[in-house]
Amino acid sequence: MIKRSLKAIKVMINGEGLEEKFESVMVEGVSIDSRTVKKGNLFIPIIRIKDGHNYVLEAMKNGAIAALWEKNRSNPPKDIPLIFVDNTLLALQSLASSYRNQLSIKVIGITGSNGKTTTKDMVNSIVSTSFNVHKTRGNLNSQIGLPLTILEVSEDDEIVVLEMGMSERGQIEQLSKIAQPDIAIITMIGLSHIATLGSREEIAKAKLEILAGLKENGLFIFYGDEPLLNEVKYTYNTSRIRFITFGVSTDNDIYASSVFEESGEYKFFINNRNASLYTVPLMGKHNVQNALAAISVGKELGIKEENIVSGLKNLTITEMRMQKLISKSGYTIINDAWNASPNSVTAAIEAFQELRHYNKKIIVLGDMLELGAKEEDYHKEIGQIIDPDRIDYLITYGPLSKHTANEAKKTFGKERVKHFTDKKEIVELIKDITMENDIILVKGSRGMALEEIVNLLL
């Protein structure tokens, strides 16, 4: 984590007003939460739903050693180390950017409509075989989360793997300029945020903002079967940026060949060469594409082939991303409740339908949010792709998912499709119909909080 004197931090953020007697005070790490602040932290009072300035004294009591304070806020606390700034969020971002420039690290930035977190975990698993790596924890990929992640980096770290999320145009550009990646990855372009951005074309433009901070001669790795991304080759200065494409088509620089499933894992070679057999220990053929992006990073960094293979095979994924859990009753739950879009739900269903060696297969779907004017159509389409010959029950939750249920009833019949407005009723039904060696997929948008169902089932 960052360890700097208050005098140095004041310079890094262009702050003012620090009393001379506090200049030599050493900061170890930063915090924006007075409840979890640690001894020696710099407390940064962010203004969100609540005003962090109201918690500065509490943060100091809990171990913070100093704080920032916005100049336009009245009544700053007396006799504690304060650095005054115009805007605390911008100061947090400036501090992270300045710290990044002082570190001898390579940064890998990852964005995309789906697959960001899984790809981040894959890159981390491969690169950790050969380097000291720091990666984004959980979902700290926002305008606040990414700077906090950078400020957690140690002076001993060599590689930093950063996930970059967004909800509107301009946000990825800001994150990229803070992180200044040496390698940038876009996993794919889907429909997430189409309600605010309006089209896939605009979504692609928003994701391509990751190139704004890409370093000179940096490497851009992207899904080459997406025309909206391939255009970058003709619109960006190729003397400044290098490209690697991955995908299904053999026109890509790296593609999977001889893909096959074995015991819930996917195995493949690359580019029709049988030198190494790669294993993705995850459900879903779509994860092979995420693996190709991660393998490309490993090769760019000169990691030995055997380490790339072993790193991918020994992958550990972030919670609620196709997370395999075993209940006390012996049935299996696939917890993919972190988020949902038409692309990711379709991929999850297709992967789930391919599973063998289970007795009953049950799908629990919650609403897909932020899909704009066509949200009902997208939910109906999900109901149409579920195969009644390979799925035993479909259970839906939320007003939009009722359209999924109604559409699925046309092929399933009414008895095997149930819609609920109460999560406890879903749990009761599943416990009644589920036995050992059954499997349940749970997926929905973040706002639906379907992990509550998972926790009750365990």
From TrEMBL:
Family to which the UniProt record says this protein belongs:
Belongs to the MurCDEF family. MurF subfamily.
The membrane spanning regions, by residue number, are none
Q: What class of enzyme is it?
A: ligase
Q: Which InterPro entries match?
A: Mur-like_cat_sf, Mur_ligase_C, Mur_ligase_C_dom_sf, Mur_ligase_cen, MurCDEF_CellWall_CoF430Synth, MurE/MurF_N, UDP-N-AcMur_synth
Q: Name one GO biological process term.
A: cell wall organization
Q: What's the name of the protein? A: UDP-N-acetylmuramoyl-tripeptide--D-alanyl-D-alanine ligase
Question: Which GO terms of the cellular component aspect does the record hold?
Answer: cytoplasm
Give the matching SUPFAM superfamilies. Answer: MurD-like peptide ligases, catalytic domain, MurD-like peptide ligases, peptide-binding domain, MurE/MurF N-terminal domain
Q: Catalysed reaction per UniProt?
A: D-alanyl-D-alanine + UDP-N-acetyl-alpha-D-muramoyl-L-alanyl-gamma-D-glutamyl-meso-2,6-diaminopimelate + ATP = UDP-N-acetyl-alpha-D-muramoyl-L-alanyl-gamma-D-glutamyl-meso-2,6-diaminopimeloyl-D-alanyl-D-alanine + ADP + phosphate + H(+)
Localization, UniProt = Cytoplasm
Q: Where is the Mur ligase C-terminal domain?
A: 320-446
Q: Which GO terms describe its molecular function?
A: ATP binding; UDP-N-acetylmuramoyl-tripeptide-D-alanyl-D-alanine ligase activity; UDP-N-acetylmuramoylalanyl-D-glutamyl-2,6-diaminopimelate-D-alanyl-D-alanine ligase activity
The task this protein performs is described as: Involved in cell wall formation. Catalyzes the final step in the synthesis of UDP-N-acetylmuramoyl-pentapeptide, the precursor of murein.
> Pathway it belongs to?
Cell wall biogenesis; peptidoglycan biosynthesis
Q: Which residues bind ATP?
A: 112-118
Q: What is its EC number?
A: 6.3.2.10
Q: Which UniProt keywords apply?
A: ATP-binding, Cell cycle, Cell division, Cell shape, Cell wall biogenesis/degradation, Cytoplasm, Ligase, Nucleotide-binding, Peptidoglycan synthesis
Q: Which residues form the Mur ligase central domain?
A: 110-297
